[in-house]
User: Fold this.
Amino acid sequence: MHRILLMNMMPNTVGDSILITPLFRIIKKNYPRSFLAVTVSPKLAELYKNNKYLDKIIIVEGLDKISEPLSKLKKLAIYLKIILDLTKKIKKLNFDVCFTVHPLFFLLPVIPFLGGIKNRIGFKFKGSNLNFLLTKEIKFTYWYEDLNRHFIESYLDLLRAYDMQVKREDIIEEVFVRKETTNKIKKILHKKGIGLKKGIICFEAVSKFEQKNWDYRRYGELANYLIERGYDVLLFGSPAQKDANERIRKITNSRAFNFAGEFKFDEIAAIFKMSKLFISPPSGLSQLAGAVGTAVLEIHGPSNPKHNMPLGKNKSYAVMYKDLQRAPVINLSYDSPLWKEYYNSITVKQVIKNIKKHKLI
Assistant:
């Protein structure tokens, strides 16, 4: 029996953690009797805990701290402790093969090497000075090297290097929701009168990257359009996004619901699964919505949707500035004023036109 480890060391990054979920299904199809484990930060373990393809979730204590504003020296100290602790854990589990996904951090090959894993497969990238500890290295393809290549393809390259067969129909992002969680959420929403009419539509209107923020007044206008047609509009995001969501809610005369920071990830997943549509800029929550099977409409500025659109069972669509639909520019630095210019060139009418065109409501 193969014992396989997917080493995911992303700290608190929802989208990146969901992007590796197609690998679970593909590995199990290639090795049905394998023991499959994945590493994850404590806060994101909820995304994996109901996944039917996983045999073990290894929670990496301390990984959450990496995303905090600490000095490089402090982060290095945290990483060194993580490496020592994780090495002890995986050594006991006797893995045959380890695939190292993200991030591209030069110290990561040390873990499977010290953990005694025979087959160690990871990426070759600028600064990967410890790759001699890998048994096979795969060149990481950056977004600017192939503008139309989906990010997941780089992860699939790791599996192909181990002679696994990858079928297109299996490249599906998946997050599974427990029935108990769904029932709990239904009760909470129904008490607030949510979901009793035409259905639920969710927004994440505020990106952590300010450059990706469509004007909040346009989200408010779009929310009013949907509310007037009988839909409940729910606003999501981190606790830091709550105040920004309030500005949108006021435009709707408090008819929209502001749930920023109020639910755990498995509860958010349950709400998204009950929803007809999710609207946002490219984000971790749009990946989550797609992964539970909800239709997604992403509002893109100059970025290429082919690079990171959600790959769930339902369809995902992109709204772009009309002149960029054929030739998106994804090599703009975030300090370029073109980000704001392209985002704000997208009108509410254009978004509504896409909703109607794709029959999303």
Summary: The mean pLDDT is 91. Residues 233 and 256 are 5 Å apart (CA to CA).
